[in-house]
Amino acid sequence: MKTVIYLLIAGLLFTSCSGRQQKISSNNGFAVLPHPDANEAVATFAGGCFWAMQESMIQLKGVNTVISGYAGGSTVNPTYEDVLTKNTGHAESVQVYYNPAVISYEQLVHAFFFAHDPTQLNRQGPDVGNDYRSIAFYRSPAELKTITKVMSEMEAAKYYPSSFVTEMEPFQVFYPAESSHQDYYERNLWDPYIRSVSRPKVMHVRKELPQLIKNEYLK
């Protein structure tokens, strides 16, 4: 469904901007991954459409930059169209650059699980396929332990009615998506898909973690 809507509106020139867009560099039509600052850590997640996940993460205090892209597969430098074929192995993902002195990795993991339904296998609502699967990529044994802990706690609390199907994979590589997909949520607030599918996910994070939301996103 997202694909159809995206193709229908790709050529439109009208946008609805809130003024919260990131300053993401571009090269040959693709976003450029920033080099982490000395006080930054990096985390990578996949949980359905990256339009919603990017917005869900950038609204958090301590999160400086969020890049939409592709991870978890084997194809080198995939395009959006490549990933849509379901043959690359990649999932739509986000890479989060954050200050661990302000927000912890555990808090990011909580936000990740609130930003999508981790009990849906190879889909998120109307978006179906392995490119929409739920994955938490870990960079250390400590991060894997944190992901496992949060999943166990949320399952025990029966926050969701079914068991989590989120994959836990060691991080290998993240390919940034096309510049047209960066801050798509903020640039296209009028988009029917954004309003009906993405916005509820973003609002869910705000509802569950209000203490972690930047002031400008609460206005």
TrEMBL record:
SUPFAM superfamilies xref list: Peptide methionine sulfoxide reductase
Peptide methionine sulphoxide reductase MsrA domain span: 43-189
EC main group: oxidoreductase
Keywords for the protein's UniProt record, in alphabetical order: Oxidoreductase
Enzyme Commission (EC) number: 1.8.4.11
Gene3D superfamilies assigned to the protein according to its UniProt record, in alphabetical order: Peptide methionine sulphoxide reductase MsrA (3.30.1060.10)
Active site: C49
Phosphoprotein listed as a keyword: no
Gene Ontology molecular function terms on file: peptide-methionine (S)-S-oxide reductase activity
PROSITE patterns cross-referenced by the UniProt entry: PROKAR_LIPOPROTEIN
Catalytic activity: L-methionyl-[protein] + [thioredoxin]-disulfide + H2O = L-methionyl-(S)-S-oxide-[protein] + [thioredoxin]-dithiol; [thioredoxin]-disulfide + L-methionine + H2O = L-methionine (S)-S-oxide + [thioredoxin]-dithiol
Pfam families according to UniProt: PMSR
Family label: Belongs to the MsrA Met sulfoxide reductase family.
Record-linked PANTHER family: PEPTIDE METHIONINE SULFOXIDE REDUCTASE, PEPTIDE METHIONINE SULFOXIDE REDUCTASE MSRA 2
Functional description taken from the UniProt entry: Has an important function as a repair enzyme for proteins that have been inactivated by oxidation. Catalyzes the reversible oxidation-reduction of methionine sulfoxide in proteins to methionine.
The protein, known as: Peptide methionine sulfoxide reductase MsrA
Species: Pedobacter cryoconitis
